[in-house]
Design brief:
Helices cover about 50% and strands about 15% of the residues. By secondary structure, the protein is an alpha/beta fold. It is flat.
């Protein structure tokens, strides 16, 4: 797809200069006022617009430019707008960024800087378009609520789609916040039991003395306060799916009763004499290492083999190649609509922060971060500061700057040589294989204090 640029500039000389800054593979359209710019916007649907705020009939002010900026953001909110201002118009540039412009450029014209700024905007537009396409097509999965692009998660989804039509008991493992319950619901929704109940119970959230009656139910008079009979979760899921979340925290005494149910598919209510047959599919999940629990003697090995006929090990978000940004984009879109803040987009620093952050709380943490950013963002752009993410870590792009890598290595080698020679310049220069004047020049360049005292300080 050809890249399309709209240049909005009322000065014919500057129009011509800006046009010749760009290569022939770029489709460039020129406009001199608000009306022609809006017509060109509808006709060509540009990816990037450079907008001079001083347009007729107010070439000396910025009112016409701001009106056009508002209309473009309303008609084509995904278009990247680069505001062109004079050197004394920093306030207008800041205001434009707050309204939703993606970047600004100050006159006078510098072809190299202008090309860099425009190409950066094209790159951001292309990245956002790819992410929208991935979200629109569910990234190749038919699983409701699961957004995935990484090979790791796509493999899990393929396995789930094969397992769902069967009735095998499935164990889902993975860290907290990775979406285990969503996968359990997907197993139910893609099965022949989808029109029957889905009953979920958290084995870690219910006290041990109540968990048995919650799972298996009880008969009237079986204990103090049992004024009537009650079905348990297993019976209420009859014909459907029973989801046992955090099964690794189930008490040992109850594990034996659950094993008996899985073997015989009969429920013994508390205080009952006659067992009740139940047809239910069982799906379990835990964030704990079950093999370690077995070694510690807190989980029955025979129960483990019964519940893990198929095991889905869900990777942490940090181990899913590329998923963090795809999920963040999807969350921003859905939360923005829900909070009446549509068409929000991440800035480049936010994208780099999302990619580099380890996400210890997985998707659950990301939901909290993106929800906060949706509320706190000024204008249409969500920054790394809005997400409260630490941007100190260098992303892969900054590591590819060869000049910076070379300078960092050179500086480190000089410091190491000076320290190993007790800051003797003659010895350090011989060790590095350079002349002493060259070493002095390098220490000046990198502002390295050539004395042990200053180094210690």
């Amino acid at each position: 797809m050809s890249r399309r640029l709209l240049i909005v500039e009322d000065d014919p000389g500057l129009q011509s200069q800006m046009r010749w800054c760009f290569s022939e593979d770029l489709e460039v359209t020129l406009s001199a006022d608000r009306e022609s710019a809006l017509a060109a916007l509808r006709r060509t649907e540009p990816d990037v617009i450079t907008l001079d705020l001083g347009l007729p009939p107010d070439p000396g002010g910025a009112s016409e430019g701001f009106l056009l900026l508002e209309e473009v953001l309303r008609l084509a909110p995904m278009t990247k707008i680069i505001v062109v201002t004079g050197r004394e118009d920093k306030e207008n540039a800041v205001k434009a960024i707050g309204m939703g412009a993606s970047d600004f450029y100050q006159k006078p014209l510098d072809a190299d800087i202008l090309t860099f700024v425009v190409n950066r905007a094209f790159r951001l537009a292309e990245l956002e378009r790819e992410n929208r396409e991935l979200s629109r097509h569910r990234n190749g999965t038919n699983i409701k609520g699961i957004v995935a692009a990484s090979p790791q998660m796509l493999s899990i989804c393929r396995t789930l789609e094969k397992v769902a039509p069967t009735d095998v008991t499935t164990l889902i493992t993975g860290e907290t916040g990775t979406g285990k319950e969503l996968l359990a619901r997907a197993l139910h929704d893609l099965s022949q039991r989808s029109d029957r109940p889905f009953a979920a119970i958290n084995c870690a959230a219910i006290p041990e003395n109540l968990l048995e009656s919650e799972l298996f139910g009880f008969e009237k008079g079986s204990f103090t306060g049992a004024t009537q009979s009650k079905k348990g979760k297993i019976e209420s899921a009859n014909g459907g799916t029973l989801f046992l979340d955090e099964i690794g925290d189930m008490p040992m005494a109850l594990q034996a009763k659950l094993l008996r149910f899985l073997q015989e598919r009969m429920v013994d209510r508390v205080g009952a004499v006659k067992p009740i047959p139940v047809d239910v599919r069982v799906v379990c999940a835990t964030h704990r290492d079950v093999q370690e629990l077995i070694t510690q003697g807190t989980f029955r090995e025979d129960l483990y083999y019964r519940i893990s006929e198929i095991t889905l090990d869900v990777p942490a978000l940090r181990d899913r190649d590329g998923d963090a940004l795809v999920i963040a984009q999807s969350l921003l879109q859905s939360l923005g609509k829900h909070m009446d803040r549509p068409n929000l987009a991440f800035t480049e620093d936010a994208i780099n922060a999302i990619k580099s952050y380890p996400w210890p709380g997985n998707v659950r943490e990301m939901i909290n971060k993106v929800k906060r950013a949706t509320i706190m963002a000024d204008g249409k752009r969500v920054t790394a500061a809005d997400l409260e993410l630490n941007c100190d870590r260098e992303g892969p792009e900054s590591q590819l700057n060869l000049r910076q890598v070379r300078e960092n290595a050179e500086r480190a080698a000089i410091i190491q040589a000076l320290q190993s020679c007790s800051f003797n310049m003659a010895q350090a220069s011989r060790l590095l294989g350079i002349t002493r004047p060259t070493l002095y020049n390098l220490t000046d360049k990198y502002r390295i204090e050539a004395s042990s005292e200053s180094s210690s300080a």
